[in-house]
Amino acid sequence: MIDDLKGKVVLITGSSTGIGAAAARAFAANGARVAIHYNRSATEAQAVLAAIEADGGTAMLVHGDVTDRAAIDDIVAATSDGFGRIDILINNAGGLVQRAPIAEISDELFDEVVRLNAWSVIAACRAVVPHFRRQGGGNIINVTSIAARTGGGPGASVYAGSKGFVSTVTRALARELASEHIRVNALSPGIILTPFHDRYTTPAQLAAMTAAIPVGRAGEADECSGTLLYLASDALSGYVTGQIVEVNGGQYMP
Length: 254
What we know:
Number of helices: 10
Shape: globular
Number of strands: 9
Strand content: 15-25%
Low-confidence stretches: none
Number of domains: 1
C-alpha cells in the first residue's frame, strides 16, 4: 500500500481497457478514488468498476470523447463534482487509428490522430490545472510511447509524431507548472499486450517487434502500473518532474 495515495482522486482517461484499466485497479487497490473514463467501451468500463468495488475500492464512471473540447471539460468537472476534488490526471487515452504509409495519409487521418493523441493532452491539462491551482498543487502523468523515440512501426509515422509531441509538452509543462507544486511526468510504454495491438498489429508484425526485446517477451498492462503509482506518489517521487519513464523490457535504452 502506498499510503499517500489513500483518498487521492485520480482521473484516468481511456481506462476501460489495457494500461488504463490496469492502472485504475492498481490505484483503487492503493486506496485512491478513481474516475474511470471511457468513450465507446461502456461494457468494459462497467467491468472495471465492478472489479474495483468488489475488492472494496471506490470508483466512478465518466464518459466522453477526448477529441471534443466540451466533453473534456465535462469529464474533468464530473470527476471533481463526484469526488469533491481532483489530485491526479493520467492522460492515457490515445490510439493509432490506422496504419498508413506516407502516400496514404489523408488530411483527415492526420487531424484525427493528432487530435486524439496530442490535442487531447493539452485540452485535459488546460481543464485540470485551474482545479490544481485552487487546491495548491496536483500531478499530471501523460502516456507517451516508445514510438516517440524510435519513429514507430510500419505505417505509424503520424502516431509516433503525436507521441513525440506528448513527450516534449510533458517537459514544457513541467517547467511551466513546477513553481505551483504541479508535477508533470510521462510513462513511455514499449510493446504491451493490450487491445491496441489486437486492433493495429498483425501476428507477424508483433512477433518481429517482440524479437527485438532483450527480455524476450512483450509486456503486460499491469507492468505499467507500478511506474504510474510511483509517479503519482509525492512520497516516492516528489522531486521528480519533467521525466519520461521508459517501460519496454530493454527494447530502447535512451
